Amino acid sequence: MFLISSLILMIISIMMILMIIANYISMKTFKDREKSSPFECGFDPKNSARLPFSIHFFLIALIFLIFDVEITLIIPFIYSMKYSNIMIISIMFFMFMAILILGLYHEWKQGALNWSL
């Protein structure tokens, strides 16, 4: 019984010593606190949350998401050309690309891609 209690006491003391050493080594300064704060979409988390949101950032993010999803839809077209009628798949692919290009042209004409303030 004495052996078990001495082992438990030794384990607890080693654990406490390691925790104190780790806490002392990892002392954080004010600059480190600024580095580890969250950074979300250019907003400072220490300021007010009711700041006006940049519509340009939103439109560019939306266009990126649209084209990212469209790329995932284009890849099966390429793989299906091996197993299907190449003429039908090519027509579908070019129609799909035409819709994408027309959408990009529309966004460009609407001014969503202009970054002038």
Automatic annotation (TrEMBL):
The chain crosses the membrane at residues 6-25, 55-79, 85-105. It comes from the Eukaryota. It catalyses: a ubiquinone + NADH + 5 H(+)(in) = a ubiquinol + NAD(+) + 4 H(+)(out). It is found in: Membrane; Mitochondrion membrane. Keywords: Electron transport, Membrane, Mitochondrion, NAD, Respiratory chain, Translocase, Transmembrane, Transmembrane helix, Transport, Ubiquinone. GO terms for cellular component: mitochondrial membrane; NADH dehydrogenase complex. Its main location: membrane. Its EC number is 7.1.1.2. InterPro entries: NADH_UbQ/plastoQ_OxRdtase_su3, NDAH_ubi_oxred_su3_sf. The keyword Translocase applies. It holds the Pfam family Oxidored_q4. It is an enzyme of class 7 (translocase). It is a multi-pass membrane protein. The keyword Electron transport applies. GO terms for molecular function: NADH dehydrogenase (ubiquinone) activity. Core subunit of the mitochondrial membrane respiratory chain NADH dehydrogenase (Complex I) which catalyzes electron transfer from NADH through the respiratory chain, using ubiquinone as an electron acceptor. Essential for the catalytic activity of complex I. Belongs to the complex I subunit 3 family. This is NADH-ubiquinone oxidoreductase chain 3. The lineage of its organism: Eukaryota, Metazoa, Ecdysozoa, Arthropoda, Hexapoda.
